[in-house]
Amino acid sequence: FPIRAGAYTDELVQTAKSIASPGRGILAIDESNATCGKRLDSIGLDNTESNRQAYRQLLLTTPGLGEYISGAILFEETLYQSTTDGKKFVDCLREEKIVPGIKVDKGLVPLPGSNNESWCQGLDGLASRSAQYYEQGARFAKWRTVVSIPCGPSALAVKEAAWGLARYAAISQDNGLVPIVEPEILLDGDHPIERTLEVAEHVWSEVFYYLAQNNVVFEGILLKPSMVTPGAEHKEKASPETIAKSTLKMLKRRVPPAVPGIMFLSGGQSEAEATLNLNAMNQGPNPWHVSFSYARALQNSVLKTWQGRPENFEAAQKSLLVRAKANSLAQLGRYSA
Ligand code: 13P
Q1: Catalytic residue among 76, 160, 206, 224
Q2: Is 182 assigned a catalytic role?
Q3: Tens digits of per-residue pLDDT, 6-25?
Q4: Hey, whose CA ends up nearest to atom 6 of ligand 1?
Q5: Burial, 94: exposed, middle or buried (Cβ in 10 Å; 0-12, 13-18, 19+)?
Q6: Using a 6 Å cutoff on CB, does residue 39 contact ligand 1?
Q7: Among its keywords, does the record have Lyase (predicted)?
Q8: Which entry of 31, 76, 117, 182 is annotated as an active-site residue?
Q9: Local structure of 189: helix, strand or coil
């Protein structure tokens, strides 16, 4: 049963499979310069190119990282950057058998005609940018759009999010990049978990409808969903078991088993919560590889340990390995706190 033939189809399937390999997940360090600036500011560092380089060097040269990490999402600046000794970051990753990835969206802007919602820019020129990123060593891409529950979400915002993701996914595949499909349903709000489940089902049904319409090869994509949790301001917190149950229920209803991997975002959960929730999700067999693509939940203690001081460099790399290993065990369903 051949899947839709394209110049890169076999390679896309292989890339997606190697990222979704047992005990491994994605390290997301694709913060835009503005967002990276916020991380650096939290430890009193200026948002300069050399401080961003120093921080990314710390993360990407961690010895042994490839045991737990199969892919790293980079911002454009990092994809073209090298260590202070002149070794390309993409080569550091390749040596650890970590697939380099690239954030390709151009960020969120207000969506006129909606309920104060936003849409994600970046389709113009995406094909030529993607071809250049492939040339530079990237093999997968990420496009993050958001859906807000307190703002509706309006039918317009959901449709726009889904259509944008599907166009991006088709363009990425056409240029050899495995698209990570990320409609982040924001944690904000005081709604119960049932409301998140309802919105997530709606969003993913639209996303898969448009992915199919755009002839996207499902075997060559990865998903980056939010977990189904109560709103951050809801009066009751949910246990990892409840979060796992509602999240898997939603995914099983909406995501075909042809999709190789589900790589969750952490979305503002603490490091411990993100690990425990992932572990709960891997207590039984799933039709897809269920893993992580965390930014904040892998970086928070690294930043705290580093503080921008050279003498803390190795300790900070060790704290990255601690989180990466914990999430690796959670991917295998074997983590205990
Ligand atoms: P968080 O894990 O911090 O939510 O980041 C998600 C993301 O999209 C980064 O690539």
Answers
A1: 224
A2: yes
A3: 889 999 999 999 999 999 99
A4: 265
A5: middle
A6: no
A7: yes
A8: 182
A9: coil
